[in-house]
Design brief:
about 230 residues, alpha+beta, Jelly Rolls, 2 domains, five-stranded antiparallel sheet, 3 helices, about 25% helix, rod-shaped, binds 2-acetamido-2-deoxy-beta-D-glucopyranose
Amino acid sequence: MRAIVLICLLHAAHAMFQWNNPGEEQPLPETRPGGACVADPGSCGCCVMWKEMDRLTTYFNTTLNNLESQCEQTKRSLDKIEAGRDAFSVALTDHPSINCFGPFPSDRLIPYKHVFINLGEGYSVNTGVFNVTHSGVYSIALTVYSDAGAARNLLAACADLVVNGKMVAGNSEKNVHDQEDAATLVVALHLTAGDTVAVNMPAGCFLCDDVSHYNTFSGFLLYPTE
Ligand SMILES: *[C@@H]1O[C@H](CO)[C@@H](O)[C@H](O)[C@H]1NC(C)=O
Ligand SMILES: *[C@@H]1O[C@H](CO)[C@@H](O)[C@H](O)[C@H]1NC(C)=O
């Protein structure tokens, strides 16, 4: 492209600086390269070239402007994702020896005391409730484990995942055959900022644990939504 423009300009310059007869006034050199087209119809290709240059400049400028605005949009989305790093993962207890929560005569929320991670501080160790601060699709997992102490004792490893106080899914292992049992559930849920997620232990159920962390409750934001 540069070479073509140069040839074009040379052609225009040649037209401007022809030898004159003695005494004849030398024409003033054109300062605007485009002006050569007016002075010399022979350099008309140049006009076409300049028009083409203008067109390309506009084209590249528009493309650049579009790319810049798309880049801004991407950056805003990324900032939103980074600001919404929500993840919690907790376990029932830190007791060195096996310790049971329950059974109780009525339902109650489980206050998981050991915190693996609480990014975004949405989980409360006092209440056992996870407050949703960013709307989006979350992965929630619940594992229960219990130990009846001896075979033929009643084993009741049961707990329900509740969102805004309503049961969403449950784990239940009740029998008199096993001394120990465990169960796990994993769900993907679309949650809204302000929702509460917790684990309810129905009356009669009991969960046992020690530092092995057999009972865990975890949730993290897969991706945010508006
Ligand atoms: C390129 O686009 C910007 C934004 O629309 C404008 O301000 C600027 O004058 C344009 N430049 C050219 C060379 O067209
Ligand atoms: C969760 O929300 C409830 C009600 O909005 C509030 O009482 C509680 O303190 C919140 N807990 C956390 C850990 O933010």
